[in-house]
Amino acid sequence: MNLKQQKKVFTLSEIAAECNVSLSTVYRILREPERADKPLRRMVRAHLIQNGYLAQYHSEDAMTVLNVIADKYQLHQSSFHFLLQKVCLEREINLVLCEEANLEKTVRSVKPCGLIYNVCPDKFHPSLPSVIIHSGYNSAMCTSVGEDDVAGISAVFAKLKELGHRRIFYFSPDLYDDDQMFQDRFIADRIKRCYILNGLDFDEELLHFCKISEETHDAVMQDVLNFFLSMKDRPTAVVTPSDVYCEAFYQRFRQLGIRIPEDVSVAGYGNIRRYKEFFKEENFPLKRVTMLNPPLTTCDMPEETVSAALDFLLEKINNPLVRNKKLLIMPQVIFTNSIGPVTKKYKPSL
Fold first, then answer.
1. How many CB atoms lie within 10 A of CB 347?
2. Which range marks the domain in which residue 6 is found?
3. Which backbone phi and psi does 121 adopt, to 5 degrees?
4. CATH code of the domain in which 134 resides
5. Burial grade of 1 (CB within 10 A; 0-12, 13-18, 19 or more)
6. Angle at which helices 217-230 and 246-256 cross, to 10°
7. Is 322 within 8 Å of 295 (Cβ atoms)?
């Protein structure tokens, strides 16, 4: 069967101009697609394919990597997946998104060379090299790469101290469980270091940890806010281990006329705002977080995290006997005008 030829939108000269290369470079890549071994030349090859001059080109050396997540409706919890897509595209590695429940089926189907996990598995795949992007794992269990979340929170504390804040309220859901792997920012003893290392007086009431779930979220957040507003020496700043918990503070403060950041500074973690276009209707509570005004000060996973995870995986693919490793990378701290200098204390009635 003859395939209908794709319409050529750009001429070769126009492709050269679009990519800012010489016409001779375009001709070389047209004759030998494998010469497109650099980002700029790969862009030329992509234009040639899109405009019908070349058939889809696949390198014989290309490999496939699976990115294992909990499920497709929780992509906001797999924020590094979007960074991983970018890195794999630059290196010409095929990346396939895979829900953990479908792992075995997907492995049989696409025959990957290795796995990069986001979800915390009970056990890793027995026959494929694996790396997990999660700071809670140690090198005795698996090679892991993650952001140093406590260092990120400490950097936020340091900035708040610089702005004159001395009493910082930290709310976190109580997620600690011996059978699970949670980031250190969800563990009270780890967060105490942020106060001590920044020379801030530590008071037990400044750390508020309590059980919370999707079903109890609204009620628990209401209790937390009532506790915060009733504190005799009310903190001038609020920090949480996830952006999603900040929305309740924004809403209640607005109702009471408490201004952010003039009266209380607020900061979160995770940079949910970056992934707002991926939230569907069922993610509406998360979508609201992306629309907070002023935009939230937060911490984000740096691109080096996924680059390092991919490097470690390629190393394990090439040498199955290589020892497991653990790497923590400083997160990117994104300061916005949701935090500001301490002014007069503002205490409206409840």
1. 13
2. 1-57
3. -85, 155
4. 3.40.50.2300
5. exposed
6. 50
7. no
Are 125 and 115 a contacting pair, CB within 8 Å?
yes
Q: Please say whether the beta carbons of 18 and 10 come within 8 A.
A: yes
Do 311 and 283 share a structural domain? no
Compute the distance between CA of residue 16 and CA of residue 24 in angstroms, rounded to an integer. 9
In this structure, the answer to whether residues 97 and 239 fall within a common structural domain is: no
261 and 209, same domain (yes or no) = yes
Total residues found in the chain within this entry? 350
Q: What is the pTM of this model?
A: 0.74
Percent of the chain whose pLDDT exceeds 70: 85
Which of these, 269, 313, 298, lies nearest to 133 by C-alpha position? 313
Q: Nearest 5°: phi and psi at 70?
A: -70, -60
Domain co-membership, 202 together with 316: no
Point out which residues pair with 65 in neighbouring strands. 95, 114
Q: Is 253 exposed, middle or buried (0-12, 13-18, 19+ CB in 10 A)?
A: buried
In this structure, the answer to whether residues 157 and 102 fall within a common structural domain is no
Confidence band (pLDDT; 50, 70, 90) for 131? very high
Positions of E strands within the chain: 64-69, 94-99, 114-117, 130-133, 143-147, 168-173, 207-210, 237-239, 265-267, 298-300, 326-329, 332-334
Q: Which has more pLDDT, 194 or 62? A: 194
Number of domains forming the structure of the chain = 3
Per-residue pLDDT tens for 45-62?
Answer: 777 876 778 765 555 567
Determine contact, residues 249/266, Cβ cutoff 8 Å: yes
Count the helices and strands in the chain (H runs, E runs). Answer: 11, 12
Asked if the model's pLDDT at residue 8 lies above 80, the reply is no
Q: Is the confidence at residue 348, as pLDDT, over 80?
A: no
CA distance 211 to 156: 24
CATH number (domain holding residue 7) = 1.10.260
């992306």: which residue's tokens? 290
Band (pLDDT 50/70/90 cuts) for residue 180 is low
